């Protein structure tokens, strides 16, 4: 089943060797970008350690132990994640029906569509109550497995109180216990927590790997596969979400923007920019900027490397932009850097309409040379 995890060969190699050589650490830290397979790898690692199959391909995914891991019913497996306040007991009982429904909803989402975001009714975090439950469970002997497996997802979301309590758990974990933390923000963890874990880095997934995944599933055409793979920026989870939702609307908006640049349509752009006055439009603007980076790359490939073009169905528009300013070497790199800076600014509290206006003005200078 480890073969289902794409683009993380080094991490998988380290973990499989640890199993094969019987040199397992008591605690691991899986760190890297969001959506690259940290959670799935942690789950499969725990499955592999307790897999009942005598074959080499572990985890097998079909033995009773593996099936219980996949259904979150294995008595020696505990999954801790950021959530609203659950009011959960050390035995794992959630007294509020509403919170129980949300807890089960998150677990169901992890079993069926783990790449999707799950929306809770209120702010989430990993609180002291969850750590207390882990502390209680960690002192029990394994029920069915060789090891007890504890996965703490997005460990950086532990509260200060929870982090301090968890640190004590990490100091001397039982020999029959393996704790796996995942995070995309390792710098947000206590240094003392990091130092007690074996660190396993996860990398952004190469775009050709994501394209290959789409090609194997055969539910996207070549243009869509290339666009989703590029916009996903190394995140398989984001690529799958984009593909499932069919979110090419942002591509159409990018094309509309470029048409306004070609025609010098300042009046039309003013109306276009009005949609970016709301915070809700930030994800759309991020996608438009990502599309623009692709378009600039395509223009630079237009003359000499047409096989590298992603927007293959829009070569007429690419030619128009190229003819407006053939000096691609003079503006492409600087403009891509500028667009990446705009993406970074969007991480802060900025006026999105001013961002798109700044981008439009820069495009006008490049292609209309005003």
Task: Walk me through this protein's architecture.
There is one protein chain. The protein has 370 residues and is of the alpha/beta class. The protein folds into 2 domains: 2-201, Rossmann fold, CATH 3.40.50.300; 248-367. It is 53% helix and 7% strand. It is built from 16 helices and 5 strands. It has helices spanning 9-20, 38-50, 64-70, 97-112, 128-138, 160-171, 191-195, 207-217, 222-231, 236-245, 249-263, 266-273, 282-302, 315-324, 328-346, 352-367, and strands at residues 27-31, 77-80, 148-152, 177-183, 198-201. Strands 2-3-4-1-5 form a 5-stranded parallel beta sheet, with helices on both faces. Strand 3, helix 6 (160-171) and strand 4 (177-183) form a beta-alpha-beta unit. Helix 8 packs antiparallel against helix 9 (222-231) and helix 13 packs antiparallel against helix 15 (328-346). It is elongated and about 70 Å long. The relative contact order is 0.10.
Class from helix and strand fractions:
alpha/beta
- The helical percent reads 40-55%
Tell me which CATH architecture of the largest domain applies here: 3-Layer(aba) Sandwich
Shape verdict: elongated
Query: What top-tier CATH class of the largest domain fits best?
Result: Alpha Beta
Number of domains: 2
Uncertain residue ranges: none
Mean pLDDT: 90
**Which sequence of SSEs, written as H and E, runs from N to C?**
HEHHEHHEHEHEHHHHHHHHH
Helix count, DSSP H or I runs of 4 or more residues: 16
CATH topology of the largest domain: Rossmann fold
Our estimate of the beta-strand percent is 5-15%
Distance between the ends: 57 Å
- The CATH superfamily of the largest domain is identified as P-loop containing nucleotide triphosphate hydrolases
Gyration radius from CA atoms, angstroms:
24 Å
